[in-house]
Design brief:
Elements: H1 2-11, H2 14-49, H3 54-62, H4 66-82, H5 93-130, H6 135-138, H7 140-165
Helix pairs in contact: 2-3, 2-4, 2-5, 3-5, 4-5, 4-7, 5-7
Length: 179
């Protein structure tokens, strides 16, 4: 176990980068599942009374799922930029920790925005059930929440690119502790 820790977390940042990628996927996936459950529950009620509006509600039910895809893109981007996909990782410990924080922060935004988008989609589903002719306007309600999920994706891509573009600086010399 000591060798594993040393290789993946001390000598390289590969472990930190992998955890960051998976945290993004975890948060984005859980949030999307929760958001779809919220929207799907509302849609089930509306469809029980008006099954003919299924086509109009399908997009509204699916919208909270996009954050899971964005989080997956973040994870693939981390794996690609670090060389994990090629099987030749080149990550310093500091870069790995930076990628860990990018994955966690972007993942949290994807998680929360998926839940909020599920709630906004539920409101849009309710509006569409009452006024099917307003379905085009109703989609704008959850689409506004989507904006912030996209911003988190773009910010993550920019930060991953920036972090992986940093060249390893000269080693820091830590003075010996004196008694």
């Amino acid at each position: 176990m000591e060798a594993f820790w040393r290789i993946y977390f001390v000598e390289t940042g590969t472990g930190w980068a992998m955890i960051g990628a998976m945290m993004a996927v975890m948060f984005g996936g859980v949030g999307s599942a929760f958001g779809i459950r919220i929207a799907g529950g509302q849609a089930a009620g509306a469809l029980s009374e008006k099954p003919e509006i299924f086509g109009k509600l399908l997009i509204l039910m699916a919208l909270p799922g996009t954050q899971g895809f964005y989080a997956f893109i973040i994870a693939v981007f981390i794996a690609s930029k670090t060389g994990l996909l090629a099987g030749k990782p080149v990550v310093t410990p500091l870069q790995g920790i930076g990628l860990l924080f990018v994955g966690i922060c972007a993942g949290i935004v994807e998680w929360r925005s998926a839940i909020y988008q599920g709630e906004a989609s539920a409101a849009a589903i309710s509006m569409t059930a009452r006024r099917p002719d307003q379905s085009g306007r109703a989609i704008l309600i959850p689409a506004l929440v989507e904006t912030y999920a996209v911003i988190a994706l773009l910010a993550a891509i920019l930060f991953i690119t920036w972090i992986m573009g940093i060249q390893a600086a000269a080693p820091v010399v830590v003075p010996a502790l004196t008694q």
